[in-house]
Amino acid sequence: MSAHAPPKKLHVAILGCGEESQSASFMGSALLSGVLQSLKGQEQPEFTFTISAPSSSSLERLRRQFGAGQSGVDIIITADNVAAAREARVVILGFQPQQLAQVFEDANLVAEMHGKLIVSLLAGVSLLKLADKISPQQRITRVIPSIGAQVGESATLVASDTSLTSDEQELVFSLFKLIGSVQLVPESLLNTVTAISAATHALSIVAVDSIVDASVAEGVTRTTAQAVATQCLRSASTLLQGSMTIESFKESMSVPRGITINALLNLEKGQVRAGISDAVQYAVNYAKNM
């Protein structure tokens, strides 16, 4: 699917931003941060964002982060979900999954959802359950960004099997492509691929941490070791997103009697490959049972 720039004068509401260490509400803030970063220095479409937060501390945090306005984008901050949704064309649900019933107890908010495109960031909450709480006729999709959203490097997942029109799906794509890559995934596999994304982040960090510790033990400064390891991780990712496959990448580095092939053979002594696969499968099964 091709991506197009979002239409001008797009008003987006994000309900439930700003709670620290909480996945969905944190992701709402990360999404807005990433969008604003993406728009810096560019010819900008006319966005308006309205963001709501559930507590005074969250509101204060959002005002410090976004209150002055950034990148020429209008940002309205409010404690009122109904007011936040009223003028929006797109409403993003960024509160906690367990708050779904509580949030939509408000009949006025349910009424404001009519005719709007709803994007849910609520992990583990199905489209069927969302429609039951809001409206069976409502146009809803599920989107799961990754933590890289705040720096424009999200691996965002979008449910492919929804009732959205092609134009609405394009709109969702265009918005979330501002913060990274977008992959269409059947809703039945969203939790599975989310677990793969989370495991990739976690296992990569463990690998880099181990590399840095070993480097320090060999006399390299921690700053240098981390800079080299993270840049190599970045370059490998870029190459694999291009024309190279995992097999061709490995082959290009593994010259006869070379450093890389000997490091890989030594790594296999610890059955690391099997350990990684087991960890990913555990994460997937855990996500399925959430």
TrEMBL record:
The keyword Ion transport does not apply. NADP(+) binds at residues 15-27. InterPro entries: 6-PGluconate_DH-like_C_sf, NAD(P)-bd_dom_sf, P5C_Rdtase_cat_N, P5CR_dimer, Pyrroline-COOH_reductase. Residues 12-124 form the Pyrroline-5-carboxylate reductase catalytic N-terminal domain. One of its GO terms (molecular function) is pyrroline-5-carboxylate reductase activity. Keywords: NADP, Oxidoreductase. NADPH binds at residue 81. GO terms for biological process: L-proline biosynthetic process. Residues 187-290 form the Pyrroline-5-carboxylate reductase dimerisation domain. HAMAP family: P5C_reductase. Belongs to the pyrroline-5-carboxylate reductase family. This is Pyrroline-5-carboxylate reductase. It comes from Knufia peltigerae.
